[in-house]
Amino acid sequence: MPWLVKDEVLFIHVPRCGGTSITKFHKVAQQAEEGYNLYYRLGLRYYYYRYKVLESANFPFMTYENLLVLFQVTLATVLLVFVPQLPENFPAPYVMYGMACTLFINSTFVWTAPVLMR
Fold first, then answer.
1. Phi and psi of 14, rounded to 5°?
2. C-alpha span between 118 and 116 (Å, rounded)
3. What are the tens digits of pLDDT across the range 10-48?
4. 57, 107 contact by CB (below 8 A)
5. What is the rounded distance in angstroms from the CA atom of residue 16 to the CA atom of residue 33?
6. pTM
7. With 90 as the cut, is the pLDDT of residue 96 above it?
8. CB of 59 within 8 A of CB of 109?
9. Coil, helix or strand for 19?
10. How far, in Å, CA of 117 to CA of 68, rounded?
11. Which residue(s) pair with 3 in the sheet?
């Protein structure tokens, strides 16, 4: 839940109460990143990216997560079909398929606004 302290006023955004326009006006996303380490800033950028995605679609299909899924499925298929010298019980393509399916289902259907009661 985003928050902002400005001029001795604490603003806490409660979802679905008109806080998005106030959050954009006060540039909370940019101000929250100031003065922190790279890991923290990347986490905040991903949080605000997901926040923006969930504002535009209930079940987002065109996302960076699904682009990663497409890459994993393509690479696993290339490994299985076009690389004949792989050992017979080489698990990497199957693990990649499993991870891709899990990420696709979770990012498109599970970690979404209707499921998260947003």
1. -100, 120
2. 5
3. 777 666 666 677 777 777 777 777 777 888 888 888 888
4. no
5. 23
6. 0.69
7. yes
8. yes
9. helix
10. 26
11. 12
Residue type, 110: V
Residue 19 and residue 28 in contact, taking contact as beta carbons nearer than 8 Å? no
- First CA to last CA distance, the chain: 12
Give the ranges where 1-118 is alpha helix by DSSP (H): 19-25, 28-32, 38-56, 64-82, 92-105
What is the DSSP secondary structure assignment for residue 41, as one 8-state letter?
H
Q: Which residues pair with 4 in a beta bridge?
A: 11
CB 58 within 8 A of CB 113: yes
CA distance 53 to 62: 9
Q: Residues 49, 55, 57, 63: what is their CA dihedral angle, to the nearest 10 degrees?
A: 0
Q: Where are the beta strands (DSSP E) in the chain?
A: 3-6, 9-12
Longest dimension (CA), the chain: 66
As given in the structure block, the two tokens for residue 49 are: 């990216």
DSSP annotation of 102: H
Q: Which of 25, 28, 44 is nearest to 36 (CA)?
A: 44
